[in-house]
Amino acid sequence: MRKFILLLISILMALSILGCSSPFGKDTNTVIIGGKNFTEQDILVYLMKGVIEKNTNLKVETKAYLGGTNVVAQAIERGDLDIYAEYTGTALVNILGEEYTPPSSPEIVYEKVKDIYADKKQIIWLKPFGFNNTYTLAMRTSQADELSIQSMSDLAKQSSNLKLGATHEFLERVDGYSNVKAVYDMKFDLPAGMDPGLTYAACRDGNVDVIDAFSTDGRIIAFNLKVLEDDKQVFPPFYAAPLIRADTLKLHPEIADALNLLAGKINSEEMSKLNAKVDLDGKSPNVVANEWLADNGFL
User: Fold this and answer.
1) What is the model's pTM?
2) Which of 3, 87, 267, 279 has the fewest C-beta atoms under 10 angstroms from its C-beta?
């Protein structure tokens, strides 16, 4: 009996180290929310955590800053995550491999990815938060004005004399640099792959001339960068929405009611301000998210 008790204690300790709540599987009263490796995703993780814990009896475990799109998308399909926030354009082109034919309305893109995910992945798209964090190309405003560059077509004509710095994900994605290069005939010489946290400062400081940027990033305004017009509409709409595994939602339908409280409540300007509080003011994503939830009556 003593040996059995010691063995059981050892098993429970091992499971605790591995992050398991029970020797029989994951605690069904706990859901896991994950996020990608940039500021906005961190904030969304804690916004979702806050409304779920406030409006349900569930506990939330967070796995923020996991990695790029593929890492997080695979994690939810494996069941390592229950919930994360995804962008409609990313899901359509980069994850599902569907063709984007401009111009398609945000509603059409959303309904398409929603239907495919439910049918093929058993993952449910809830209602969008309200903001469109589309990819953009940006450069220093002073340099853009000096070179009379207003659009991505203008940029293409002078791209052979300029240096592009971009995130590794943008350089690798099918809806990223390769598509932009083909549509606009960009002629950058050896684009520099960079960490997402370094691109904006590199452009501000003149280490590169052009960067890929997220339209809701607070550093665009703070660093006096100019977003170039996507005049050929190469980028699809990137509306953010919570994704949840169908089996998790079946077990806890109250999660949808909680997360849908955030539907349409965060526009692009508001999201940009939240991002700036983290990237520029040095606040933690958790604090920023909880302050916003409190200020807007969610807590």
Assistant:
1) 0.81
2) 3
